[in-house]
Design a protein that fits this description.
By secondary structure, this protein is α/β, with parallel strands linked by helices. The chain has 14 helices and 14 strands. Helix 1 crosses helix 3 and helix 10 crosses helix 11.
Length: 417
Amino acid sequence: MKILVLNAGSSSMKSCLYDLPDGNLPARPPNPLWQGQIDLTHQQGVAEIKVKTAQGATVEATYPTESHGDATARMLAMLWEGETQVIEDLKAISCVGHRVVHGGEEYRQSTVITAEVKEAIARLSTFAPLHNPANLEGIETIEHILGTDMPQVAVFDTAFHGSLPPAAYVYPGPYAWLEQGIRRYGFHGTSHQYCAQRTAQLLDRPLNDLSLITCHLGNGCSLAAIKNGSSIDTTMGFTPLDGLMMGTRSGAIDPGILFYLWRQSGYTGDQLDTMLNRQSGLQGVSGVSNDMRVLTQAIADGNARAQLALDVYIHRLCAYIGAMLASLGGLDALVFTAGVGENVPQIWTAACAPFAFMGLKLDPAKLTRSPHDQDIAAADSTVRVLVIHTQEDWAIAQDCWHLTRTATPAAGKNDDL
């Protein structure tokens, strides 16, 4: 069974094609037959496309493009054309899975896509305006290329956090907020869930017997407190803006700052939105970059603002790890994942240092770059510390495999809310 996965961001797209057996799924993620990536950030109206196959063929190209969907169509054409062709016929694809950022209160499981699901994704774009429209465009692009009969599955970033207790998801505003759907939803759920499952494998312990804090640290950042396999607390909230300091997002701030800027400086809502989502975080404080690699070099060159940005980032990371620890009441493993979490030993060391009082120790010999899927804690540490390569695409493919064999359309909708 060949399953195509599309993971769309606001200005990027990752895609891969898996060939999965009809019998049992493999315990470890297989290598994709084909992988594609689109970057729309460097030049307006131009898509940078990179494609590679399991056999080693690689193509990099740039194309003028009018839309996210047009760029996606060009990338997918490389599945059956040119040097990176891996299938002869579009009918070889059995299912297409999509990461969808926001599923609201309606969708708490991965779901076969129907017209009703598409309408919900569009409606929930008000909660995730940078992501849900791109996710929907990817779905419609597949319909255009592969036809409306092609099974498609939505894997919602919010779904894993559907287990949050009311004390964690209700905001302390007027109760009418909750009635309007204003609550903590949480995001990066596919990554947090995959890393929890992989941690259980690596520790050779049942997932339902573990208390974990998973740290998804990329350009977007979030933590999750996971007890017995379920998310019980997380840092992102009603939108992906809440919580940790991120690459260009502020994370949690005093809401009074917004009123101050509005009243004293005349900022509009759109200006404040841009400021908090695109001009804050590591980029905003440092004035250098949202890229941790660039920031680290700037610090080495003596840039004081870059150092300040890193100090704030670490301070807030440690504070939120402490908050997740309080929610759990104990900890078996601390897990780092995503671009920064997987590749910056300085972050592992700094994030773990405040918890030495509870017997958490790192193994100095293991503090090298990219020890993926490895325990970096010292042998006598009371808490295991893992660095795991998150594989959201593989998690999406697994959900597609299960749903196309067993589920009915809209199986993930929660009708009890």
